Fold this protein.
Amino acid sequence: MKNIFEFKTVEQIKAENTHNNNLYGLVYEEAIEENKQGRVNIHPIPYNIKGLKIAANVYTPAGYNESSDKKYPAVCVAHPNGGVKEQVAGLYAQRLAENGYISIVADASYQGSSEGEPRNTDKPANRIEDIHRMADIIVHYPGVDSERIGILGICGGGGYTIKAVQTDKRFKAVATLSMFNTGVVRRNGFLDSQTATIQERLIEASGARELEASGKEVLYTPDMCDMPEEEAQKLPYDLYKDGYYYYGKTHKHPKSTFRYTVSSFLELMNFDAADNADLINQPLLMIAGSIADTFYMTEKVFAAAAGTKNKELFLIKGATHIETYWKPEYVNQAVLKLKEFFNKYL
C-alpha cells in the first residue's frame, strides 16, 4: 500500500487548511471536524499521476478497521468544474460513507490542491485520466472489494465520468448528479447561445496556446465569482446565478475557481460526453433537478446511452442545478436514490 500513496499527518493537514475552522478545510454543512472511533472518518492522502502529486480524501464508514477482513464496496466521486474536493463532492462522499461505502474524492490535476502547471488547465483528457487513477488507488485501499467499485460524477465531473466509464469496466455502476457536458457548453455556449462565435474563440485559444508555448504568458478566462453581486443578480441563467453564490459566497473555498486557461478551449471544444455513450454497458443512474436549466445535457446523454440494459433517470422535483449540491431536502433525496442504486448493483 505504501508504494501507491502515503497518509498525511495531522500537522500537515492543519498547515494546508488555514482558511476556516474545519481541520480538513471542508465547507459543507455537517462536515467531519475530527476523526472519532466508531464514526465515519476522513483520510487525506496524496498519490501520483504522471509525475504530479494529487490531493485526495478517502472517507471510511463507521466501524471501519483497516486490519479487519471485512470487505466494502467503494465509490469514486468526481467533482464539478471549478470545484474542489472540500465542497459538494466531499459532501456526497461523506454521505456515501455514512451508508457503508468507502469513498474517494480527489482534486483534478492542475486544479485545487493537486499539482500541475499552468494552474487551472481544464482539459478533458486530464480529467478522464484523473478518474481512471482514482480507480487505480481505491481498489488497493485496505478493505475495498475491487469487484464492487462504483462512481458518482457531479456536474462537469459527471460529463467526464460518462466518458471514462465507456472504456473503464472496473466501474460496475455509474451515477451522475446534475451532469454538465463541458465541451458542448464551451463550444456552443450555454443553451447554444454562442454558436456564432465558435471560430473566433478557437482562434483566441490557438493564440493563447502559442503564447504559452513561447513562455510569454498564460491567458485565463474571467472568474465569474469576481463580478460584483449586483451584476451576478442579473445573470440570465440559474446555473450561473446560483453558482455565483455557492462558489463565491456560501461554500467558497480559496482553491476553487472558474478561471481556466484559454488554451484549454482547443481540447474542450472538441469534446462531447455523449459521443460513444452507447459503449456504457454498466447500470446507469442519472439524477437532475426537475427545473435545472442544465437538464438538456443529462437528457441527451441518457438517450445516447443505449448500450446499457439498466438505466434510470431520476428527477428531484423543484430543484435547480446548484441546489442539488447543498439544499438538505434535495441532497437527502439524491442520497437515498444513490443508496438504492449502489446497494442493488454493488
